[in-house]
Amino acid sequence: MKRRETLGLDLTPIIDVVFILLIFFIVSSVFKKEELALILDLPSSSAKEMEVDKDQVFIELSSSKLAIKGIEVSFESLEDNLKEIENKRKSVIVRIDKKVEYQRVIKVLDLLQKYDLTNLALITNEDKE
Fold first, then answer.
1. Mean pLDDT score of the chain, rounded to an integer?
2. What dotted CATH number matches 44-126?
3. In terms of Cα–Cα distance, which of 98, 104, 117 is closest to 58?
4. 56 near 90, Cβ under 8 Å?
5. So where are the chain's domains?
6. Whether the Cβ atoms of residue 67 and residue 35 lie closer than 8 Å to each other
7. Residues 41/97, Cβ–Cβ less than 8 Å
8. What pLDDT sits at residue 31?
């Protein structure tokens, strides 16, 4: 009488496929950075660093462009975005290029004040002495 051997499942091809899929998803995923849209030359300051929360509103201002939450917008769109913010105590982080006209800065600050968003922080580069 012949003895039958139990058939076992060969796991090597399954493990190979799993590793290939894992490598594919790691390589093809996008890691979210800060919501920055404009390349700005920030002024320097010797003020201390502050913690950045995920729930903050980021506004960027250059001499010709404006962005909020990493999306380039016009001043009218900025006003619409600021109008929709319900939590008036939410931090507003403003990055302003050092070559921006003062009038453009005042225009952004006026919009923030109009919608009672007074928890404001201006971002600068660290002063290297």
1. 81
2. 3.30.420.270
3. 117
4. yes
5. 44-126
6. no
7. yes
8. 67
